[in-house]
Amino acid sequence: MEFKKLEYILKVAQLGNITKAADELYMTQPALSHYITKVESEEGVKIFDRSTNPMTLTYAGERYIKTIQSILELNQQLQEEMLEVSAHKRGRLTIGIPPARAANLLPQVIPEFIEAYPGVQIKTVEHNSRQLKEDVKKGLVDFAILPQLDGLDKFRCLELFDEELFLIARQGMIHEDSWHTTANDEKVIDIKKLKKQKFILLRNGHGIRNALDIMFKMNGFKPDIFMETTNNETAFGLASAGLGIAIVPRMNISTLKANHPIDIFKVSEDGLKWTISAIFNDEKSAGYLALAFVGIIRDIFDSQE
């Protein structure tokens, strides 16, 4: 659409004089007059009543001017919005994240992000790891926050932080010959001595279950599974009630309250850790806002170390 020419007609309507309008538009009077005549011919109506001085609008002209004023205002708003988007002052960011991690991580990150980018809308899509990887592939989310495990060959992974996993059990449930204490008074469990214990694990498809299956396999250990659940909060609660033992991320231990006294064990001397990453579709470039969000997460967790 030729917005500049709409502005020509609007200027004539405002001044009621083609010559004055031409002067302000830095064009010749014949050129402006020819353009108006051409538009009137194309529309099949007279826009201006040239018999009056100054020129006035016909009824059709009044409707025409009202419409092009709206068009020009909308175009101005569009240009301003595009400038804000290009300057990253406005936009939308869709983040895929497991529900439990969303509850723990997002309240720390979103306030800082919104302070820096107040015009950006944030939407979250909360699923398990398997579904979130599909969401990233299909472009339903800009990125997902997931543990960096197997099955991510076709993704671009930006590391955020390392998170330790701990084994928890109701206090006194695990015999002392199954663990030892470090110089820092941390209890370290020997997984191979837990064959008689019942485990409470997340169902297949969850990131932590994948990590634990790898760990069990590396130790030549097959857990006796008492129950499978869909979230770490349930596993934590059942373990604290003495129904079995569970292995959960540090975030659950720091945010959940046990109903009974519990023992907390490191899974190895160095600790069983997984890397939490931002997972992007490798076929697409990561957007500025997504990278800014990633940067804030890194800054927050670097300061906590």
Structure description:
The protein is an alpha/beta fold. The chain has 3 domains: 3-86, Arc Repressor Mutant, subunit A (Orthogonal Bundle), CATH 1.10.10; 90-160 and 275-304, Periplasmic binding protein-like II (D-Maltodextrin-Binding Protein, domain 2, 3-Layer(aba) Sandwich), CATH 3.40.190; 163-274, Periplasmic binding protein-like II (D-Maltodextrin-Binding Protein, domain 2, 3-Layer(aba) Sandwich), CATH 3.40.190.10. 45% of the residues lie in helices and 25% in strands. The protein contains 10 helices and 13 strands. It has helices spanning 3-15, 18-25, 29-43, 59-86, 99-116, 129-138, 207-218, 232-240, 250-255, 288-304; strands spanning 48-49, 56-57, 90-96, 119-125, 143-147, 155-170, 179-181, 187-189, 198-202, 224-229, 246-249, 262-266, 272-281. Strands 3, 4, 5, 6, 7, 8, 11, 12 and 13 form a 9-stranded mixed sheet that branches. Strands 1-2 form a two-stranded antiparallel sheet. α1 crosses α2, α1 crosses α4 and α2 (18-25) crosses α3 (29-43). The radius of gyration is 32 Å and the shape is rod-shaped.
Assembly status: single chain
Q: What is the helix fraction of residues, given as a range?
A: 40-55%
Low-pLDDT residue spans = none
Q: Given the structure, what is the number of helices?
A: 10
Specify the overall morphology.
rod-shaped
Radius of gyration: 32 Å
Q: What is the CATH architecture annotation of the largest domain?
A: 3-Layer(aba) Sandwich
Distance between the termini: 56 Å
Query: Any idea of the CATH class of the largest domain?
Result: Alpha Beta
Structural class assignment: alpha/beta
Q: What is the N-to-C succession of helices and strands?
A: HHHEEHEHEHEEEEEHEHEHEEH
Query: Which homologous superfamily in CATH is the superfamily of the largest domain?
Result: Periplasmic binding protein-like II
What fraction of the residues are assigned to beta strands by DSSP? 15-25%
Write the CATH fold name of the largest domain: D-Maltodextrin-Binding Protein, domain 2
Largest sheet geometry: 9 strands, mixed
The overall average pLDDT, rounded, is 88
What number of structural domains do the residues give? Answer: 3
Can you count the beta strands? 13
